[in-house]
Amino acid sequence: MTHRKQAPATASQSRRGFLASSATASVLGALAAAGYGPVSAAATPLVAKPSNRRALAKAPKAPFDSLRDWVAAMDAHGLLLRFDRIDQDAYEIPALFFQATDMYTMYGAPCFMFDQVKIDGQWVDGPVLINTQGHWNTDAIIWNLPVTPGDHYGNYRAAIAHMEKVYADNGGKLPQIPPVVVSSRQAPVKEVVVRGDDIDITRFAFVKTNPADAGRYVNTGSHFMVDPQLGANFGTYRCQIKGPRKLGINPEPNQTGYKMLMAARERGETTMKYSIVLGQDPVVWVLSGTRLAPRGFGKDPIPADELAIAGGLRGKAVEVVKSENTDIMVPAHAEMVIEGTIDLREEAFEPEGPFGEMFGYLGPVKPKNFVMTIDTITHRKQPWIMNAMTGMQRGMVTAPADAAYSISLKEAIPQFVAYTNPQDTMGVVVLSIDKTGPGQGLKSGLAIAQRNPIAKVVIVVDKDINIYDRTDVMFAIGSRWQPNPASQVLDDVFGLMTDPSQVKYARTSKIVIDATRQLPGEGGKAEFPRTNRDLLIEGAPEAFAKAREKFGDALASWKRA
Fold this sequence. Notes:
By secondary structure, the chain is α+β, with helices and mostly antiparallel strands. It folds into 4 domains: 18-153, no CATH class; 180-381, Pnp Oxidase, Chain A (Roll); 413-529, UbiD C-terminal domain-like (3-Layer(aba) Sandwich); 533-561, no CATH class. The chain has 14 helices and 22 strands. The radius of gyration is 24 Å and the shape is globular.
């Protein structure tokens, strides 16, 4: 198998001489040269600056059929930085990305593309992509919504409103458009077919992300499998590369893939074949890593047609093609499909991990995990490899999940205003309410803590607090919260199993913090003071507009010290 150097069609900033200095020094110069500069002394999210209107007019727009179309759209919106090569033997990719998020926050850093990556002493053709759905504005771009430069909170709120309307227009459910089958000749993912002993997964640009990881990982694959009762499913599970044709597979016990593999074992099956899809279109990727698709378990399981849901969300059917070795249908415009066989016998299990996990800490070694033998790989002529910077980046757009959860919370919490589960402070969730009576803050927070395993710290704030702005939230905690009595601790409840603080697997304590203004019926003041900003808006309503007009240029041109 050969990999010819082929320039992708979405060129952005190419920083020659990147390897001449450290990743930390290089990112400062590269980001500055590309026009990415902090807009205040605080860690303010990056303001996306489209290259020009012509680029935006020509760029692909939703629905995006491929990862390449999606990256081209981000490029046109000023959200792509491209480098000719990077030395991952020196772990420059995570060093670069940590520097970017330190400068611009997790939600403000751009997507990065690396044409070549040094792996085990060899320069391997990519490109490799990271942070493909990390920036605030990607939540709007994915649905072709207007993007206002600099108004990342507004863009995100518009994406949530769009998703809530999608649910409302479809009777509270996600729309569906069944996939369309195309021939192998029409499927870019079938351009190259490699079988048997000709396979060597190590020749592709999959990386070892962190020095402490067990090895190189395929960590953005959608595992397409079929169960007689649960139907078809695809989900994202990390895969440790153990050899040219060997992958360690890690679905967690609460995930559908694990349930399907174990169900096959219980039926007496010794093997299971399925396909791993890489380089998915952005909507398929979102569905692969979330629980958006409704699926029921138990005595009468409810299947979910995730490909049809992807089509419904896109407003256009996903084109699919049959796998080489099974009847499993996979997206035709993907970058790569790995088809393999899982040995379900316990004696075939092997240790897997450790791996840097979503909380931002190293996860444990799994002493017994599934192993896949790769039977066939199909891919584009020069496949693009997407790597997840797990625990460092926002993995995918989150407005769909926030919208879905918000809809259910509105039924449980009459005072509900907005909800968010920040990816850069995993375990902390924030809820705003329109408080009208005593006890509503704690009651609302408990409704989340008792149903959401991720929610270990639940912060409830008033409706005037911007839940997406951490400074605003901390302002509410510091000035409106009384730890006693406006707190409640839950001693032993279900928690997310990847939380490194847990002593007992999947069990945790939780706390609800009521950072709303405390009413007299809660022991608060008869009249709570108003904020200085609110008083300024009320007393001098034209002051903000006049200040922007007179001093806006001076503030915008200031170079941060």
